[in-house]
Write a structure and sequence with these properties.
The protein is about 60% helix and about 10% strand. The protein is mainly α.
Length: about 180
C-alpha cells in the first residue's frame, strides 16, 4: 500500500504504509489516500476513485496513522510483553494476598527486586503496576472506539475535504489521548 498526499487533485508526495507523516506537512487541504499498487509520480493527477474507494482510502490512511500512534506506546517486543504480563500477574497476586510484608524472591521476583531499586515499597510498586495496566486498558479501548467511529465519520461527509477533515479529527483525538496517557 502507498499513501498518497493529494492537494487540489495533484499528488504532492508519497510514503509507504509504515511512515507516519501528517497531511498538514504538505499544506492545508492535503488529503491522505491509501492506495494499492500506485505507480505514478509526484505531480501526477491523483487516481480517480469511486465514492466507496475514496472512503476506504481515507479510512485506511487514518487507521495507519492511529496504528502508528498506538505502536509508539504499546510494545511490540515479545520479551517485554512477557515481562509486563508477569509483572502484572505478580502485582495482582501480591495485592490479593493482602500486601504481605515478607515474601520470597521466587514468588515475587519483580516486586522484591524492583521496588528497592526504585526506592519504593512493594505495595507502592504493585499498586503502580496495576494502575498503569488499567490506564493502558482504558487507552486501548478509546483507540478502538475511535477506529470504529472512523467509517461513520468519513461516510457522513459529502466532500473529500470533509471526509479528510473528519478522519484528521479522529487521528488528532487519538494522538492527544496517547500523549496524555504517555
Amino acid at each position: 500500500m502507498t499513501k498518497l498526499y493529494v492537494k487540489n487533485g495533484v499528488v504532492q508526495a508519497t510514503h509507504d504504509d509504515a511512515q507516519n507523516v501528517l497531511a498538514s506537512v504538505y499544506g492545508e487541504g492535503t488529503t491522505i489516500f491509501m492506495v494499492p499498487d500506485w505507480t505514478g509520480e509526484i505531480g501526477d493527477r491523483a487516481p480517480q476513485l469511486s465514492a466507496a474507494e475514496t472512503d476506504a482510502a481515507i479510512i485506511a490512511a487514518a487507521t495507519s496513522q492511529i496504528d502508528a500512534i498506538a505502536d509508539a506506546i504499546y510494545t511490540s517486543s515479545p520479551s517485554r510483553v512477557a515481562r509486563y504480563e508477569r509483572k502484572l500477574d505478580e502485582a495482582k497476586r501480591y495485592i490479593a494476598a493482602g500486601y504481605p510484608n515478607n515474601v520470597a524472591l521466587a514468588d515475587y521476583p519483580t516486586l522484591v527486586q524492583e521496588a528497592p531499586a526504585r526506592g519504593i515499597t512493594k505495595r507502592q510498586l504493585a499498586d503502580t503496576i496495576v494502575a498503569a495496566a488499567a490506564s493502558f486498558a482504558q487507552l486501548a479501548g478509546y483507540i478502538e472506539a475511535q477506529r470504529a467511529e472512523l467509517s461513520s465519520a468519513v461516510a457522513a461527509e459529502a466532500s473529500i475535504e470533509g471526509k479528510s477533515a473528519a478522519a484528521a479529527v479522529i487521528v488528532a483525538a487519538v494522538e492527544a489521548a496517547a500523549a496524555q496517557a504517555g
